[in-house]
Amino acid sequence: MSGIRTISFDGVIVGGGGAGMRAALQLAQSGYKTAVISKVFPTRSHTVSAQGGITCAIASDDPNDDWRWHMYDTVKGSDYIGDQDAIEYMCSEGPQAVFELEHMGLPFSRTEEGRIYQRPFGGQSKNFGEGGQAARTCAAADRTGHALLHTLYQGNMKNNTVFFNEWYATDLVKNQDGAVVGVIAICMETGETVYVKSKATVFATGGAGRIYASTTNAHINTGDGVGMALRAGFPVQDIEMWQFHPTGIHGAGTLVTEGCRGEGGYLINKDGERFMERYAPNAKDLAGRDVVARSMVLEIIEGRGCGPEGDHVFLKLDHLGEEVLESRLPGICELSRTFAHADPVKEPIPVVPTCHYMMGGIPTNVHGQALTVDASGNDQIIPGLYACGEVACVSVHGANRLGGNSLLDLVVFGRASGLYIENALRDGIELRDASESDIEQGMARLDKLNSSTGGENVAELRKELQNTMQNHFGVFRNGEFMREGIKKLDDLRGRIDSANLSDKSMAYNTARIEALELHNLFEVAEATAITAEARNESRGAHAREDFQERDDENWLCHSMYYPADKRVGKRAVNFEPKTVDTFQPKIRTY
Amino acid sequence: MVRSVTSFGRSGVSDWLLQRVSGVILLAYFLCIGSALVGGVDYLSWRDMFEGTGMRVFTLLAILSLAAHAWIGMWAVSTDYMTERLMGKKGNVLRIAFQIACSLVIFVYVIWGVQILWG
Amino acid sequence: MLQVSIYRYNPETDSEPSMQDFQVDTGGKDLMVLDVLELIKSQDTTVSYRRSCREGVCGSDGLNMNGKNGLACITPLSETVKGNKLVVRPLPGLPVIRDLVVDMSMFYAQYEKVQPYLINDTPAPAIERLQSPEDREKLDGLYECILCACCSTACPSFWWNPDRFIGPSGLLQAYRFLADSRDLATDERLSRLDDPFSVFRCHGIQNCINVCPKGLNPTRAIGHIRNMLLARAT
Questions:
Q1: Which of A44, A157, A254 lies closest to C117 in CB terms?
Q2: CATH fold for the domain made of C2-102
Q3: Given C12, C104, C132, which is nearest A507 (Cβ)?
Q4: Domain boundaries, chain C
Q5: For C105-233, CATH number?
Q6: In this predicted model, what pLDDT tens digit does every residue of A71-129 receive, in sequence order?
Q7: H/E element holding A358?
Q8: ipTM of the predicted structure?
Q9: How many domains does chain B have?
């Protein structure tokens, strides 16, 4: 068939980060033949960079803490377009998922009572916003993602999961019924291309922060899952919602955890003023990330930025004392010294809002099953395809994710996908085999690239794409300016499609991988641009200068981007949690 | 785990401990001899010193320590540098030959030492 | 212009490795070595190396820079370049796949050997297992390892016996679990380590401490393991 080898599994997980490895662990424990395809050795996935912690009502800091309060915060944080059934599931299942991680060995920091240490994070409250700041983010110093990722890899090792490390999935394979029956993947070491056949294909490919020029994301965050889904004709949801983290190190883009502000740090402008007191009188520096990021940009625009260019603000930590900084935030001290040449013990860190997280992605239900919407507006499950983690849009983050909720999203929905697939496999999954032409279709892009001649330099095209996104689709957006950006993207599409791959060698050819990644970046960027231009309101992370108000009448809904005709549609938000009353949309203030 | 039938104690700890203990014994022995030499020594006092059973036993202990110490050390050297990884198949032959040679030399030295002491 | 010399080897076209020189315009900035590699790659796309997080936490870009192992993404030129010349080679002691990319399977195999996961078969409580801050503190300086292999590939004992000596990185992880108050397999772990190679090929050379980009101290951890083995055996 097509001259390439076929490898078969019950379940294949694309992506070896937190979500992928949590799903893989669940499947491996059930005894089904499971494989993880990861383009890097799993502990090098971007989950490793998560710092502050995993938010969850485990009632360690406050014995009376309640997952419903966490749910309230998350719904509010999402600016009311998070699906309430999914948020309910995440917040209520969360403690179990976190305790499992601890039992697996995750080295959480501890309280005097020996319980998991929890720190305050932005957007957290007690008693449905009435009881003041909560401390709900479970932490392993400021290396929680690292600790979590390594623990999950170790757990998978213990359970003999099969890893295809440094293999790169290029495209989905669909059968004649439109069901997903696996992926085409390249072994980077040898260059061999294979068809990995599977009854359940789980996308856990993470985010795509590299569509922006300034990002906290790793080089590998190129939106491969979203790219593959869009090319296969599947829609993405809320893809215009991009979180800009308030505190990326100025110039370098590396992340400084919100935990810094949780531990008592705060932002100051060039006059030394703690400006968040003006924008969010109650929560101050611990308001939602979208709110803080916008406030910072306003300070800079209004001429109160720091530095010779006035293009950043400062994060002040020195008042916390060396002991607290070295024990609670040792990684931050290290990063700041390396990338900002500033020792937080003595001086503030220069920070600026930096692209951080993709709230949107492949729409799924709480079981991780990927969805599309049929002509009459009903959800349709895409057979064979699942998604979890950042690439998925369940949606628990809506228009703005709360700090610490991404790690929870990973483990809860990675686990949920695994559990669901385990049951489905037990009941029996029957999918028609891919035909030779189905596989050839999955190979088409790769074949085209491998036989390409001429074309422009990949690195330069990527830079142009990133600058376009940075300039036209940043923290504040404007219709006219976005339309200009879309035009530039139109021009880029053809050039990126025919980008140059002069080196056709097989062994560890990173040029080939980067060219393929660029295609994915472009798919994500274009979907973002078109959807952002269409959403004529300001909500969460999507702030329009020309539509400054939230428009619940028209836009209290998910956006859906359909790649075939580049159309933006709408999908209803779920307002029907199973065990609690609906949280009705309110004006969102902190 | 890798088992090494030619190692001395066949356990990492015992080899390591023996290496240290034998080292200490050798140090003590050479300090003892050294102090005797510093005080000035002639044939008669040297012979008298080795007439006593205590000194003979101590010397035998030092010889055995040297044997063990040397074996553990040479074994480590041979398994570092004379390996199939570094030299191919001939590494195995060379290593075994080297180890046999070392053990023969050490054996000869021990017998010779006993002969000198009680011969 | 910075003079950069890079180790090149493509198994499909080269019979043996060679060094290739590049001139890089750093714009007078104190770039990280990874930034320099990115500049080179944007011109010559055939240069291959691994990279991911670019902030020193994923451990992808362990390289040998002017003779010393380290992470390219957090090594500023000012730290490594003397006399305007930067020589970049793959981590020593491991087979080269292509250019700066080494085959790390032996390194990972040693990591797996130490059973780097918590072993505790007692029924788990409904909440987390409790651990005092003092017991948790014992894991500091151990759990932070990023598996970049800078230490193990700087260790002569690992060069000679990568298949039998676990190496500083693996041993640091071995001790991370031996030191964890929640782990109950201490005796089993120790008996797996008690052979002449796994631990005892450490001769205290301390290259590992010298190169660890996270400032960890594998030699000290190995000393702790040795003491535990000794206490158990005597």
A1: A157
A2: Ubiquitin-like (UB roll) (3.10.20)
A3: C12
A4: 2-102, 105-233
A5: 1.10.1060.10
A6: 999 999 999 999 999 999 999 999 999 999 999 999 999 999 999 999 999 999 999 99
A7: strand A349-358
A8: 0.98
A9: 1
